[in-house]
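Lesson 9: reading folded outputs for more than one chain in a single document. The general rule is that every protein is listed as its sequence immediately followed by its structure tokens, and records are never interleaved. Here is the first one.
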Amino acid sequence: MLKELHLNAYAKVNLALNVLGPRDDGFHEIETILHTVDLHDAITLREREDGIEVRTDNPAVPDDARNLVVRTAQVLRETFNVQRGVEIDIRKGIPVASGLGGGSSDAAITLLGLVQMWKIRLNGRGLLSLAASLGSDVPFFLEGGAAIARGRGEKVTWLPPLPTTWLVLARPRVEVSTAWAYQNLNPSEVRSRPSVAGMVEAMRAEDLAGVGRLMGNVFEDLLAKRYPVVGQLKRRILAGEAYGATLSGTGPTVFGLMANEAAARKTAEELRALPDVEVLVSRTFAEER
């Protein structure tokens, strides 16, 4: 009997993101604090006799090897000589190319699901290594919650997640290439860098006001200079009942950590009056370990 699994792939935000410098392998050394939120893609894995097929409700999502879920299935089949195929159905809840990690999360959840479906024997270290080979953010999404990620993002240290906290997320309709952002980031022009150590202390103390004050992303000024709407969105969010606001990843999504659900929904309603901005309300999320 062919198996079928239904899974959720959760988005992330970067509460803090610092770039330390380029590496010899062409990547950059980073230090970031990640947290999953309950915004998610719904993924269905259906076993089939052979081949890999992707179906999605969003035409912006590729259905070939450009999609990390396809590469994930290919790597597992080749590495472990799996004779079965799979149909992967992706219902998108996370905006595409938004800095919220949708592609990496989809890959991590597909990896976990296929290991279970195809009964692949793989220990925790092997799973992390395979995830890291797929993408820098993929190891984090194997568990989600809260973590510091170092190296190129693949070295993950778990943190206690925040108490449930509401967020507003605003994605302007501009395209930001991650490669462009890193190529154009000039370390000497970064006006301020987030204190990752300070953020960890605030998170351990469940000090949401402290977390909000310490939120920051070294790509903010670069993006705000090229796309003024990024700075405008941050100012609008901070004008509400927000602990803090910053850019997620290399953007273009700007998000705010809000005082409560009512504050998040009020700010979201105000932001929806702006042209060409997708606005979502979510909250921090962590599955029990």
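And here is the second record, again sequence then tokens.
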Amino acid sequence: MPKYETTVKYEERIDKYLGDNSNFSRSDIKKLIAGHAVFSNNIEVRKANFKVREGDILKVTDVIKKEINALPEDIKIDVVYEDEHIIVINKASGMVVHPAPGHPGGTLVNALLFRFKDLSDINGPIRPGIVHRIDKDTSGLLVVAKTNEAHQKLAEDLKDHKIERTYYALVKGHLEDKITHIDLPIGRDPKHRQRMCVIRENSKEAVTHVYVEKINEESTLVRCELETGRTHQIRVHLAYIKHPIIGDPLYGTKIDDFNQRLHAARLKLNHPITEKEMVFESKIPKEIRNS
């Protein structure tokens, strides 16, 4: 059973192709090739400069084991709110939430560890305080827990759909309806392990409500309300209805380093300890607002 499998979309050296389209670095690929773990169309690849072509099936049958540690780093972050129980962050586009293979540092967690003494440890040492995530190139609001008590209550409220999250996205083209309700299950794309897709097998319920806010010449600004919080949910649903988010390198077309025009603009929750209703809002970035 391969650890990673993908279909090639364009001609390139195999080490560069996999380095650009997977969580493996080019040095990882060279080590895996030396370990007889990389295959193209079921034939073992023996050189890093092996050329792959569109349609080739690539398989990697092993992984590079790397120890990941979350260490404090002095990184500027936008703290919207803080008390003794929770923190609300306005995350910049381009920032990964927590360390992972390919992103060992420079993450929100590294910044949190530098700035805050107390963070919940329910999710382990590399995800302190992290209750929910937003994608690397999605900007906007997320709540962080300082204590395990706060973390547990926030996690329960997320599961029970008691935390409301509103996103704004700039999408390609014009939607036919002012309001679109998308109720389609999402699971891992069996042909591209970095992607999610609308699929019936091995999937979870996913519901997104889409509201047209502004119609531009070739794009539309939409507001998205989530009932569920699946990985890449808004990006997958909008791409499925043929209105991918502009700049999305995974489900649309990359146009610059800002990547997908998607922003978590509003967060409504009940404080996990006091139960007071709290609403936070974040200004939509100019890359989305002025396009």
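What the second record shows: Residues 148-159 form the longest helix (12 residues).
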